Amino acid sequence: MKVKRIRFLSLAVTLFVALTMGVCAQTSAEIDTAVKAAYEKFKGLQEGKNADYIPALAKVDPNLFGIAVIGPDGKVYAAGDLTTEVSIQSISKVFTMALVMQQQGPDAIAENIGVDATGMRFNSIVSVEISKKLGGGPEMNALVNPGAITATSMVQGTTADDIWTKIMDCYDGFAGRRLTVLQDVYKSEADTNQRNQAIGMLMYAYGYIKENPLQATDIYTRQCSVGVNAKDLACMAATLAFGGKNPVTGKQVIDAKNVPYVLAVMATAGLYDDSGKWLYQTGLPAKSGVGGGIIAVVPGRFGIAVISPPLDDAGNSVRAQKAIAHIVDALKLNPYASKPK
Ligand code: GLN
Q1: What's the 220 CA to ligand 1 centre distance in angstroms?
Q2: Domains identified in the chain, total number
Q3: pLDDT, tens digit, for every residue of 28-77?
Q4: From the alpha carbon of 272, which atom of ligand 1 is closest?
Q5: pTM of the model
Q6: 89, 316 in Cβ contact below 8 A?
Q7: What CATH number does the domain containing 161 carry?
Q8: Pocket test for ligand 1, best of 88, 89, 189 (most atoms within 8 A of CB)
Q9: How far is CA 165 from CA 168, 178, 180, 214, 219, in A?
C-alpha cells in the first residue's frame, strides 16, 4: 500500500514538473529547429562590412557564420561553423569586468567606472569629457573602451604577466578550455591602437586609471585578440546564464552573486550606442565585438552565441543580431514577454 502511494506521489511530482516546465521550456528538437532555421534564413544575407580599422579584421572570411546555443545540461545546439576562431574583441570586456567584480566586488566597478550607458560609440572620447563635466560620479561603463581599459587596469596582480595570467584563467574558466591569443590580430591592433592609448592616458589623467595606463592599454589590446569559436562564446554566455557555473565543465567560475551586476551592464551597454534598439527587440543582456561575435544570455535557460564578421554602422554583427533575434522569437525567450499565470 505504502509503496503504491509513494509511486503515485512520485508520478504526480514528475507530471507537475513536466507540466510547469512545459510552460516555459522547449524540447531539444524545438531548440535544434530554431537554431538551424536561423542559420538557413540568414546564411545568404549580404549586409554589413568587416571592421577594417584593425587591418587584420578586414582579412577574415566574411562568409564565416556559426551559431551555438548551450542549455543547463551543457548540451550544445549548433549550426554552421563551430570551429573557426575569430578575435573576441569587445566581448572580452564582459569577462574582465566580471573578474574585477570577483576580485573587488561590484561596487568597485560602479564607483570607479560607472554603470550607465554613454549613448556614444565604443571608442568615444567625448563621452569621457561629458562624464567628467557632470561631476557627480562616472557616467560610463566597463563595456566601452574608456571603461574597459580602466577595468583592465583594475585587475589585481603583482606583474603584467601575473595580471595577464589572471585574465586568461578567468576567460578559460568561462570557455571551458585553454584559449590563446591570435598573434596576427594582436600585432595588427597593437600597431594601430593609438586612439586607445590616448584614451588610456586620458583615463589616467582624470584619475580613473591609477598607474601604468599604457600597460593597461596593451593588456586590453591582447585580451581583445584572444581567439574564440562560436561554441566557446556560447559556453561563456551559458556560464553567465547559470549563476557563474560553467554548465559544460561544472566549474564555478565567478560567484553567483556577481552575475546580476554583469548582466545589468550588458543589458544597458552591450551593443554600444544601439543597446536600446537591441533590448527593444530581444529583452536580453548581450555583448558584441568587432570580430563579428555576439553573445546573449537568457538567465537560467541558455547561453547563445553567433559569429559572423560583417558589421553594421554601430559595429555590431548584422547576421548575429538577426540570428539571435530569430531564435529569441522562435523559442519565446524575451523575459519581458511573460504571460499571466
Ligand atoms: N579592440 C577593439 C578596440 O578597442 C574592440 C572594439 C570592439 O569590439 N567594439 O577598438
Answers
A1: 9
A2: 1
A3: 999 999 999 999 999 999 999 999 999 999 999 999 999 999 999 999 99
A4: 9
A5: 0.92
A6: no
A7: 3.40.710.10
A8: 89
A9: 5, 12, 11, 18, 11
